[in-house]
Amino acid sequence: MIPSKTDAPSAGEPRLEPIGIHQRFRFSCHPGVPCFNLCCRDLNQFLYPYDILRLRRRLGLTSGEFLSAYTRQHVGPETGLPVVSLRPASSDHRECPFVTEAGCAVYEDRPASCRTYPLARAVSRNRETGRVTEHWAVLREPHCRGFETDNAQTVAEFISDQETAVYNRYNDLLLDILRLKNQKMPGPLPLRERHIFHLALYDLDAFRQKATDAATLRDLHLPPERIERLQTEDIALLEVAHRWVGRVLFGKEPVLGIGGADGVD
């Protein structure tokens, strides 16, 4: 069923409306939409490790250079984990450092939250079977005029068009790290553990130097040829970094690749 124009958001508080993967919703974002670029203001943008990997590679920077130039860090009050977020370009409107009048300057490598909007995604794992289920909702914010366009698509079509699957795959690794952390070490991480977490997952180039020491990765039992790949392949290094953090900090490796769940709602 295609939503009617009456489904456009009304004035008031933002609201989340659950939606199925094959249900249609009406939304589009382009320079012709009156609110274009407004959602890039009042920035409070959390970055996943894969977001950082894509952005720093797009900008031709090392991970350390990118973190220093474009981000800030704090400890999440709910997760107790180090959180990296984009530093706004100005204090007046707190806009994204990559937004321009023509739109996003890093559009092809924009973070997962930008790709997913106006959808919200949650995942759950069955403790007995390990089966992962995705849950989707439409976030309707009063300022957004994108819902008034004629462009209707299913959730599945939207996430395919926005190329979010690869982001979900690697971002979900961090969700499994959080699950292990809540089981093994509730509350804020101690300073040493915070440093380990930040080094491996956010400052990937610094972790690459550490990974050259065979003793660092001994407990992961990686074959020599895979360790050699870590010197040139960012994705392989990111996967190993998640495994290493889980093993070193919480005594157990995360379940890799839970994105692309086989159960969808």
Report on the structure:
This protein is of the alpha+beta class and 265 residues long. The protein has helices spanning 49-59, 63-70, 112-116, 155-161, 165-184, 191-201, 204-211, 224-229, 234-250, and strands at residues 15-19, 24-26, 71-75, 82-86, 99-100, 103-104, 119-125, 132-140, 152-154, 263-264. It folds into 2 domains: 5-164, no CATH class; 167-264, no CATH class. It contains 9 helices and 10 strands. Strand 3 and strand 4 (82-86) form a beta hairpin. It starts with 14 loop residues before the first strand and ends with a strand.
Strand percentage, roughly?
Answer: 15-25%
Report the uncertain regions.
Answer: 1-10, 258-265
Percentage of residues in helical conformation: 25-40%
Structural class by sheet pairing and helices: alpha+beta
Topology, number of strands: 10
Q: Please tell me the total number of domains.
A: 2
Q: In DSSP terms, counting alpha (H) and pi (I) runs of 4 or more, how many helices?
A: 9
What spatial form do the alpha-carbon principal axes imply?
globular
Biggest sheet details: 4 strands, mixed
Task: From the alpha carbons, calculate the radius of gyration and give it in angstroms.
Answer: 20 Å
- The secondary-structure element order is EEHHEEEEHEEEHHHHHHE
In a few lines, what is going on in this structure?
This protein is 35% helix and 16% strand. The chain is α+β, with helices and mostly antiparallel strands and 265 residues long. It is globular, with a radius of gyration of 20 Å.
